[in-house]
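Practice record 12: protein with 5-phosphoarabinonic acid.
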Amino acid sequence: MSLSVNFNYCGGFADDNKLASIQSEITAADSALRNGTGAGSDYLGWIDLPVNYDKEEFARIKKCAEKIRSDSQVLIVLGIGGSYLGARAAVEFIRSSNYNLTCKDTPQIYFGGNTLSSTAVAELISLVEGKDFSINVISKSGTTTETAVAFRIFKKLAEDKYGKEEAAKRIYVTTDKQKGALKALADAEGYEEFVVPDDVGGRYSVLTAVGLLPIAAAGIDIDALMQGAASAREKYTNTDISANDCYKYAAMRNLLYRAGKKIEIMVSYEPYMLMWNEWLKQLFGESEGKDGKGIYPSSVIFSTDLHSMGQYIQQGERDLFETVLWVKNPIADIDIPFDEANGDGLNFLYGKTMHEINGNAHDGTVLAHTDGNVPNILLTIDKQDEFNLGELIYFFELACGISGYVLGVNPFDQPGVESYKKNMFALLGKPGYEELAKELKERL
Ligand code: PA5
């Protein structure tokens, strides 16, 4: 069995009448999504992506990943937002959040181009010093400042080290198939190119070359990842909420939101899922947070954060609900040893494993938080592997599209992201922004 969802800890919200009251909205959202009649319908390519993808490019991704593994100690992945979070989440989810510290026969993978912090970029430069490296620069628009600035710096580093010709063989570009500065540069320099499909937006692009090349370079089985997503695509088609856990989750989120539960906390008990939570936060935050509406996505790793955020969740503002992801069979488990002296008084744990203790923390927390009026939606996966991750990715993408339509927003655009960019360009003196620059400087 793979992904399962339990709605029994949602307080009165899982009530059949409540769910029935939102069924017609879910049906309408499904119709808008499947027939391409809703807002943002130019960006629905992700729906069929698990089966309808460019097979030639997929094979080329695997070949290039193999080349990177054979000629590079380090792969630098440059991208931001949807052009980075999915890949990083997958590498950490499957391999480890300490991937770069683990013993392995795959390259170190450092993610850059996602910050304007000079300290972070300087550190990244120092990390590749004396190492053979390749670069995968990812930007759908090909113009994102954080990524473009980092690429300029690392391209020079590669050319200084290898010469222009050899450097070009170590640079992999993932961008639009015809437009943008990065596309023009890649054509001019002869870099290996991969395409971000026109109809797939950044935060829905992890199953394109955007995510797949770095994921494959980390030695992860991208066929199994796609199979998991394809299985979810088959599984969650019924419009009836009671027969479709993905739609039921979308329905539940909206019912909870309408009842004042405006913050969703993504919970995991596995530290490897810290970046997975970040991916989820972008998916929901950027898709739903607009027009003065939207559930605010946040995240925690338990039991770690029970010692920092647990107090608030138990007794703070009652505008929260939790979506908890539990892994049934962990990547590794550990027996609790017997201690003759029992100085720590922990011999009652002898015979148990760490994962069993974690499971008791999970169960105890679910009960405590629901007692504290925090509804819990419980997701369980069999294990932390490629297939399960693929299924989860698709489950949440679909839930997000449906949930966004029920909320009444366009889940596939992100107009608000432009505001800071315009101001930054004006303040940097970019031609064409003179008027705005004057106005902003008066306000600063
Ligand atoms: O989801 C999105 O659309 C964004 O997060 C983008 O992925 C992000 O802004 C990066 O854009 P680009 O890929 O054009 O550099």
